[in-house]
Design a protein that fits this description.
homodimer; Spermidine Synthase, Chain: A, domain 2; 9 helices; 5-stranded antiparallel β-sheet; alpha/beta; globular; 2 domains
Chain lengths: 272, 272
């Protein structure tokens, strides 16, 4: 048995693997899927862990349900990235009418359908349309409006870096009511986090919430959200019960609690 | 430059080190102190990271300030373990009259005084008394009562294991108003966590709260607390301002938010 290792500068996470299920290069990236000992299947893009079966719900549920429950009635949803189908699966739990997923790398979708299967049938759902193209282009050209827009991008690279630009956020803001993007680890990847927050704040009022994802750098993950109003716990609870959403990590109390930030993070956000 | 590695079964954390500052064996354990590249000095006991300068406050502040602010007026405080002085430093911020620290291994205190220095002078404070003895014995024999009792033990081993026994918790409960113990990672060390919670609940009403400590297994850490009443955010805020406590991680919002648990953890706690 071997170990997979992902290092972030001067610290690293290691996960013991049983088997390599996929290892290929596309035009965009290297895609690997491993069978791990304790974390189920694991998707790795360009050497960075994207998800494991054991904790992917911690990430996808916080990315999706916080904006979806902040919206009174999300019917039309756009996901940029998220080719593994995890975010799509969570979006469909809200009884939406129309879910659009825009993924640049078709192979991620193919491998997810064939091997990961965390979409749990979402790719086959009648309400879903999948576009294989650059999210930047899609958003630039789109004539449609969305109730919720979710950016589920990878770690910044040559392609995904533009998903953290001011221009992209500006266009996103124009075509949706509630916007959310994952925003890396404020502890382990402070520069990326600050850049995302800064760029978003130049074009929208944005707030930060956090959650725990053990297989991401440092385990402490963040999200940047923009919404016209933020709801009370009572309102979120009512929507949660009405929509009958079943979760592994998310609940209305965690939703509200996730906006309380540690003192050091509050100070960094204020002082940038 | 080398790497220090701590594995927890099938996953592991690695931290790059510059220099070994201490490496010795006492009657109780192996004590190592490293100078790391990114995390400052790091204390390791029996191969397990106890603290790094960079994130020790995340742990010590959540362990100490939650029980201390749940108490209306903590004057007398007992710390079991905590020989590094981090918890003691935080306790003294509350203007207590009497702080007792009971550490089994004198060398931990000596090395902390000489090399780590995270106590920031707390060991020299007039209000502090230090007892080098087994915490179990101290609690069994004590004729005193304490406003707050804090168990700051290491990962379970031959000596610290009794700090998670029903008998120990029963005696603790009798001599204090507010009780807290660190309770390991519910994600990475579920069995230890459940054992601590189960044993505590046999003798007291106990609640769980959580916090983020990046250099502990999985980054997701937990604490078990028992108090006659739990205060509202307004009350905690008022006490926080009145006592003028300065923090790096803790604040009243995080205090209240830390009791909101992910769905999977809520279910495990209810179903054990």
């Amino acid at each position: 048995m071997e170990w997979f290792e992902e290092s972030y500068g001067n610290f690293a996470l290691k996960i013991r693997i049983k088997e390599v299920l996929v290892d290929l290069r596309t035009d965009y990236q290297r895609i690997q899927v491993f069978q791990t000992c304790d974390f189920g299947k694991m998707l790795v893009l360009d050497g960075k862990i994207q998800l494991t079966e054991k904790d992917e719900a911690f990430y996808h549920e916080m990315l999706v349900h916080v904006p979806m429950f902040e919206h009174r009635n999300p019917e039309k949803v756009l996901i940029i990235g998220g080719g593994d189908g995890g975010s799509l699966r969570e979006v469909l739990k809200h009884g939406v009418e129309d879910a659009v997923l825009v993924e640049i790398d078709e192979e991620v979708v193919n491998i997810s359908k064939k091997i990961l299967k965390i979409d749990e049938g979402a790719f086959q759902d009648d309400r879903v349309s999948i576009h294989i193209e650059d999210g930047i282009e899609f958003v630039r050209e789109s004539k449609e409006r969305f109730d919720v827009l979710i950016v589920d991008g990878t770690d910044p690279n040559q392609y995904s870096r533009s998903l953290m630009s001011r221009e992209f956020y500006e266009r996103c803001k124009k075509i949706c009511d509630v916007f959310v993007t994952q925003s890396q680890s404020p502890f382990a990847q402070k520069e990326y986090f600050m850049q995302i927050l800064k760029n978003a704040r130049e074009v929208m009022e944005a707030r930060v919430y956090t959650g725990f994802v053990p297989t991401y750098p440092s385990g402490f993950w963040s999200y940047v959200i923009s919404s016209q109003i933020f709801s009370s716990l009572d309102v979120i609870r009512e929507r949660f019960e009405k929509r009958g959403v079943k979760t592994r990590y998310y609940n209305p109390e965690i939703h509200v609690a996730s906006f309380s930030l540690p003192e050091w993070l509050k100070k960094e956000i204020v002082s940038y």
